TrEMBL record:
Superkingdom: Bacteria
PANTHER family referenced in this protein's UniProt entry, alphabetically: PROTEIN VEG
Gene Ontology BP term (one): regulation of DNA-templated transcription
Organism in which the protein naturally occurs: Kurthia sibirica
Annotated protein name in UniProt: ABC transporter permease
Phylogenetic lineage: Bacteria, Bacillati, Bacillota, Bacilli, Bacillales
Pfam families referenced in this protein's UniProt entry, alphabetically: VEG
Amino acid sequence: MPKTLADIKKSLDCHLGKRLNLKANGGRKKTIERAGTLRETYRAVFVVDLDQDENAFERVSYSYADILTEAVEITFDDEKREAIAID
């Protein structure tokens, strides 16, 4: 698991355009699971284009700090065993 925000960004930069599954903490013991494509990475956030048949909106963005604090877990489809956040 990457230890700094810069390491997380570099790791995500290598996976631009790839399919992923995302698990996010929704608060009050809720977990939100979404599928989509990693579209862009910016200085402080990354953007995921969601599958339109499963979600009500087009895209979501999260900060690298969300991954660092284990509020978000990302698993890429081509690397099912390698997760960037919590296991």
